[in-house]
């Protein structure tokens, strides 16, 4: 089974509204960033476009798997899943770009707030839309409880990845560019947790936030049971 697998047209038709809304939301972020560059003549927040591109990679991978006409086999699901997990932290990482919110001349504070919040929202929505796809694939193969275990582990690793990116300035490419230093820094934080309390504080708090937020989004998307008086 190759990546050039046939698409399920009924699934694609059901997903079109989601693709449209996500595209509209991403377009808003692009317009806000472009307008700021035109107003100030400075590309201050252009880096957010790259962050949004990285956040879209896991969604693209999971969407391709979920749109397949046939369930993906393990020999495809495992390597694609590994790449998905490698890039997945880039999506919730966008929330931490709120650190860049400081007053700037010539641009209202509320405008920069809306701009960065738009990008953070897109990061979270891309993350949760992607995780919904992967959760469904894992649950279909391994069952309900292992599906939720996958979600918890993926979000925990993602929260740790957010710490590595924001505080140690690693990115997904460093697993190839500088794997030994990356491995060393990870092992040091595992072996010496009390000397690296910030790493585990960020990881635990972000993991709890992402898990609760994902569960909320999932419940909001579940079909509502009719009330008794509606019968």
Explained architecture:
It is a single chain. The protein has one domain. It is built from 8 helices and no strands. The relative contact order is 0.11. Pfam families: DUF1361. It comes from Hymenobacter ginsengisoli.
How is this fold's topology laid out?
Blueprint: H1 9-40, H2 47-66, H3 74-87, H4 109-142, H5 144-167, H6 174-177, H7 179-191, H8 197-220
Helix pairs in contact: 1-2, 1-4, 2-3, 2-4, 4-5, 5-8
Organism: Hymenobacter ginsengisoli
Pfam families: DUF1361
InterPro entries: DUF1361 (IPR009793)
Quick one: how many beta strands? Answer: 0
What is the succession of H and E elements? HHHHHHHH
Average pLDDT value? 90
Tally of domains? 1
The rounded Rg comes to 19 Å
Distance between the termini: 47 Å
Spans of at least 5 consecutive residues whose pLDDT stays below 50 are: 227-231
The best one-word shape is globular
Keywords: Membrane, Transmembrane, Transmembrane helix
Protein name: DUF1361 domain-containing protein
Transmembrane segments: 16-39, 45-69, 76-95, 107-132, 144-164, 197-217
InterPro entries: DUF1361
Précis, in short:
The chain crosses the membrane at residues 16-39, 45-69, 76-95, 107-132, 144-164, 197-217. 71% of the residues lie in helices and 0% in strands. The protein has 231 residues and is mainly alpha-helical.
């Amino acid at each position: 089974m190759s990546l050039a697998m046939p698409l399920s047209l009924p699934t694609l038709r059901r997903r079109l509204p989601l693709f449209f809304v996500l595209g509209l939301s991403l377009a808003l972020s692009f317009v806000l960033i472009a307008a700021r560059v035109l107003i100030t003549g400075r590309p201050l927040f252009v880096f957010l476009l790259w962050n949004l591109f990285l956040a879209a990679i896991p969604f693209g991978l999971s969407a391709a798997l979920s749109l397949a006409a046939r369930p993906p086999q393990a020999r495809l699901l495992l390597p694609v899943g590994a790449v998905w997990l490698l890039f997945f932290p880039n999506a919730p990482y966008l929330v931490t770009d709120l650190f860049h919110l400081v007053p700037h001349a010539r641009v209202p504070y509320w405008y920069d707030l809306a701009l960065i919040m738009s990008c953070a929202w897109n990061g979270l929505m891309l993350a949760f839309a992607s995780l919904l796809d992967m959760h469904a694939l894992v649950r279909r193969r391994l069952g309900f409880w292992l599906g939720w275990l996958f979600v918890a582990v993926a979000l925990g690793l993602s929260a740790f990845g957010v710490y590595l990116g924001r505080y140690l300035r690693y990115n997904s490419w460093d697993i190839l560019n500088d794997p030994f230093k990356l491995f060393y820094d990870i092992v040091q934080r595992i072996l010496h947790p009390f000397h690296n309390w910030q790493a585990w504080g960020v990881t635990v708090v972000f993991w709890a936030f992402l898990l609760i937020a994902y569960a909320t989004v999932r419940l909001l998307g579940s079909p509502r049971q009719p009330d008794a008086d509606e019968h």
